[in-house]
Amino acid sequence: QSDLVAAADPAVDAQLQVELAATMTALGSLKAAAEGGMAYDQMLAAGNKAGEALIMASLEALVTQAASIERAMTVLGLTAGGFEGSDSLDTPRPHFNGPSSAPLNTAAQLILLVSPALSQTLDGLHLPVVQRMVADLVKIAAVLTPPVDFSRAEPFEVRSGGAASVRRRDTGDAFSQFSANMPFDRQMDFNLGNALFTRTWVAAPSSTLASDGLGPLHNARGCQDCHLQDGRGHVPAGDEAAVSMFLRLSIPGGTSPDGVADWQATQADPTYGGQLQLCRDRNRG
Question: How much is the mean pLDDT over the chain?
Answer without folding.
Answer: 76
